Amino acid sequence: MGGVAAYLLIGLTWAFGYKLLMQERPDAIYFQSSFAFAGTPTGLATIPTGEPSRLIYFSFATLTSVSYGDAYPYIGCTVLAMAEALIGQLYPRS
To answer: How far is CA 65 from the centre of its chain?
Structure first.
């Protein structure tokens, strides 16, 4: 049970780190909107956001290496996202 709690704590810690990064660089992570906007090539607009629920979602999608393509790291965040994904892969599971 302690391993699960530690894993969840790792994900939340990364989400907090992304929140700090988004305060400095609001365009560090892009989330695709489900709303269609006129004038965009695909009908979908990308919205940079620092909303905590989205950052937690992005953190756990990265930590577990389960990404659905609706959120991706951009400027200044790719190295952090790769580090989190590596930690998620190397985390000892018992």
So the answer is: 11
